[in-house]
Amino acid sequence: MAQPNHTSDLTLDVDGERCSLTVDNRVTLLDALREHLGVTAPKKGCDHGQCGSCTILVDGRRMTSCLTFAVAADGAHITTAAGLGDGERLHEMAQAFCDEDAFQCGYCTPGQICSAIGMLDEAKAGSPSYVTDDLESSPELDEDEIRERMSGNLCRCAAYPNIVSAIRRVALS
Fold this sequence. Notes:
Blueprint: E1 7-14, E2 17-24, H1 29-36, E3 55-58, E4 61-64, E5 77-79, H2 92-99, H3 109-124, H4 143-149, H5 160-172
Helix pairs in contact: 2-5
């Protein structure tokens, strides 16, 4: 009897580069990026979707890559923190993180930046959060709203006030 095939051929667009790979069907997107493609911007923190260190943008939406099977992202456009900016200048969110001193050790920073970009897009689209007062209008990105929307991204160094300042700076620009 023939053995079942437990692998899949995938094509991913990662930070603007088309990548083809064959992975075990149980491989997470995070492991496919880091171990198969050498993309190290997303970090493996908890491997349970609780810390946000692995947050990336998949087709423009933020996602914890440790909870996503790579096969589910076949054909997707993936943006990591390394794929932001234009090669000459940092993305405005990354620049704001630098300017506002919104990191200490930096381990969570790539996930924080990707999450912040995705969060701003969600807010612009009118998606409410738990603390949004008026569900009929676009949410105002005050500090409470930003904190709530970023609550899935943890920082062991506790740089939260500066992270909020950096995000608010971009939101107001």
